[in-house]
């Protein structure tokens, strides 16, 4: 039997830690000599594919059929290299935790059994394992990642910093993905379908008006604007044109303030307003509309107190 502490190949640090937690539960149960046939174990087993239910927490909504066929062809020749992971929900019934593509591909070529690790997991652990396992897949698109991050935060009660630790990303990266979900649906769909890049989306999201966002999006699609071109156009939108030829110093100050507002808005994921006079006296405002937005801003500032 395999060593229970052995790390599973291909799994990230966050998911590995969760699986080790499951091992600890199993070890505790075994020490109490509970040997019920419903007891979950951590060794690898061959399981009838027809006894495995789909994961109700599966975050992926789309599977590339061509890639799925390639995986099936590989399994036909090489077999299953990395076992799937399931939890046992009754004597002869299992529920998938991770490995949806491997299970689907195996069924498509008529495999009767599939190697699987059986784990102990409650519903929240199921969700967290499935989300993290999918986030770590290279072919997950930006919107799927953003939705997975959002679900981890809301349904697993994780803060951005805790989420970052789970998935191996810093807080700013996590925030940049979550902000994508504020874009108009048509832009989100284009990002999901690789019509625009993450760079395009990050530049567009700094614009307050959804109408203007859609106008720039149209230019990207119709004229093939690069990320740099979009960033330039967004910066122009943040500058207030001065009528006539007024003092250069005043104009320069306003341009610097607008540029700073653009950078701060991108950093905090919120509209930032700055007021300053010629003596460099003024104020910075970061408005918020919900407790969640306030918590995110305070977390970005690494503020230790409570609102």
From TrEMBL:
Domain of life: Bacteria
Transmembrane regions listed in the UniProt entry: none
GO terms of biological process kind: chromosome segregation; positive regulation of sporulation resulting in formation of a cellular spore
GO molecular function: DNA binding
Ranges of residues in domain ParB-like N-terminal: 45-135
UniProt key word DNA-binding: yes
A Pfam match: ParB_C
Keyword Magnesium included in the entry's annotation: no
InterPro entries: Chromosome_partition/occlusion, HTH_ParB/Spo0J, ParB/RepB/Spo0J, ParB/Sulfiredoxin_sf, ParB_dimer_C, ParB_N
Keywords: Chromosome partition, DNA-binding
CC annotations in GO: chromosome
Coiled coil region boundaries: none
PANTHER family, A to Z: CHROMOSOME-PARTITIONING PROTEIN PARB-RELATED
Family: Belongs to the ParB family.
Name of the protein this chain belongs to: ParB family chromosome partitioning protein
Organism for this UniProt entry: Rhabdobacter roseus
């Amino acid at each position: 039997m395999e060593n229970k502490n052995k790390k599973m190949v291909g799994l990230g640090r966050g998911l590995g830690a969760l699986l080790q937690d499951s091992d600890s539960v199993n070890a505790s149960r075994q020490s109490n000599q509970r040997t019920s046939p419903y007891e979950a174990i951590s060794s690898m087993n061959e399981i009838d594919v027809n006894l495995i239910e789909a994961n109700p927490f599966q975050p992926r909504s789309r599977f590339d059929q061509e890639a799925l066929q390639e995986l099936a062809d590989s399994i036909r020749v090489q077999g299953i290299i990395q076992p799937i992971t399931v939890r046992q929900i009754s004597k002869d019934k299992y529920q998938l935790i991770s490995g949806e593509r491997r299970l689907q591909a195996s069924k498509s070529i008529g495999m009767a059994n599939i190697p699987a690790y059986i784990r102990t997991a409650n519903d929240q652990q199921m969700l967290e394992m499935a989300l993290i396992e999918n986030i770590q897949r290279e072919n997950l698109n930006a919107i799927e990642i953003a939705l997975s991050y959002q679900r981890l935060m809301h349904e697993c009660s994780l803060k951005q910093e805790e989420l970052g630790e789970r998935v191996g990303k810093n807080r700013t990266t996590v925030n940049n993905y979550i902000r994508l979900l504020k874009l108009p649906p048509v832009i989100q769909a284009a990002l999901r379908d690789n019509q625009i890049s993450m760079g395009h989306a990050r530049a567009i999201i700094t614009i307050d008006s959804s109408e203007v966002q859609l106008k720039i999006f149209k230019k990207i699609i119709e004229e093939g604007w690069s990320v740099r071109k979009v960033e330039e156009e967004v910066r122009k939108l943040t500058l207030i044109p001065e009528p006539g030829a007024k003092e250069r110093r005043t104009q320069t100050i306003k341009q610097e303030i607008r540029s700073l507002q653009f950078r701060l808005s991108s950093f905090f994921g919120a509209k930032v307003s700055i007021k300053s006079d010629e003596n460099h006296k003024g104020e910075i405002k970061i408005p918020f509309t919900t407790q969640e937005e306030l918590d995110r801003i305070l977390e970005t500032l690494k503020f230790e107190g409570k609102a």
